[in-house]
Design goal:
50 residues, mainly alpha, 2 helices, 56% helix, globular
Length: 50
């Protein structure tokens, strides 16, 4: 669960946001945290293979 403080990092929120972009058809994005970006891509692709 993410904090209500805007300046705190929220990995799950970032991943959810990126996955919304993927579902909308976006095929590229920039992120300040490549590890979170990779995790979001891997999570999205794993759900698409089902």
């Amino acid at each position: 669960k993410c904090s209500s403080k805007a300046d705190e990092r929220c990995e799950t929120g970032s991943i959810k946001e990126m996955q919304l972009y993927f579902k909308a058809g976006v095929d590229g994005f920039f992120t300040d945290d490549p590890a979170i970006g990779r995790k979001a891509v891997q999570n999205y692709l794993s759900t698409q293979k089902q």
